[in-house]
């Protein structure tokens, strides 16, 4: 009996040691693929440096030094709680200019609007593009093409105002005053035409609200998803990238499109999973995309600089 107890104790100690070793292993190094176009994605960050926003910004700078991104993407909710009032609003300095100060962060930041941005002056975020050398929001929705270095591979980037697809916002003009001026059908027609006529090898669409989520809104119908999902599938869009949920997620449903949520720039919420979930974690961080000629690598990086998830997909 004593021998059996001793054997069981040894097994328990071995299992405990093994689990500790597995959980304590060093993070994978951040990959920087050659001949790729790199960009970093962060969202839901504008809180004056609080909720680990500054720490996440410092790591964003460190990662940018390693992979040399062509630009940054902000997935919206750039300023809490009520957007900005003007191009001279102090929040530009409190939440953006004085937080993202690292030398590697002084490249173009292409941004979309979130629901909290719509509680303020949305046009001021567009106008700030004329004042800032790095903030880029030329309109409520816009697009551009880039070519991967050393190849003829073309990438189409589409930036949407998905707030326009949320019908509930139109019923609350006191909360979302600028939404009343928008015409969602015009944006949908623009998006459909752009994708129909595109000859790009890769297609990436960026918005704020999700199509799929395993986060706190997983039991709610996605009005943005009802609009976008058929279009993304029709034109074989490679990835849809958004924020809104304050976590980090990768989801893959039927069809070609990959779904990524990068909304962990400051305050977090609990996350979870659905049948399409490949990864989900509620931790401050961001995502690094490396688009190659045939393959795209995505790395999810927490605020301490750990690569906590990697995936890749082909075109």
Structure keywords:
seven-stranded mixed beta sheet; globular; 315 residues; Purple Acid Phosphatase, chain A, domain 2; 7 helices; alpha/beta
Describe the structure.
The structure is a single chain. With 315 residues, the chain is α/β, with parallel strands linked by helices. The protein has a single domain (37-314), classed as 4-Layer Sandwich (Purple Acid Phosphatase, chain A, domain 2). The chain is 27% helix and 23% strand. It has seven helices and 14 strands. It has helices at residues 2-24, 53-67, 91-97, 122-131, 167-170, 184-197, 223-234; strands at 37-42, 71-74, 109-111, 135-136, 142-147, 154-159, 202-206, 239-242, 248-252, 258-262, 277-281, 285-291, 295-302, 307-314. It has a seven-stranded mixed sheet with strand order 4-3-2-1-12-13-14. Strands 5-6-7-8-10-9-11 form a seven-stranded mixed sheet, with no helix packed on it. Helix 4 (122-131) links the parallel strand 3 (109-111) and strand 4 (135-136). The longest helix is centred in the first third of the chain and has 23 residues, at 2-24. It is globular, with a radius of gyration of 21 Å. Mean pLDDT is 92; it is low at 1-26.
CATH-derived architecture: 4-Layer Sandwich
The CATH topology is given as Purple Acid Phosphatase, chain A, domain 2
Oligomer: single chain
**Percentage beta strand:** 15-25%
User: How many domains is the backbone divided into?
Assistant: 1
For the termini, the CA-CA separation is 61 Å
SS element count, helices = 7
- Rounded mean pLDDT is 92
Low-confidence stretches: 1-26
- Biggest sheet descriptor: 7 strands, mixed
Helix percentage: 25-40%
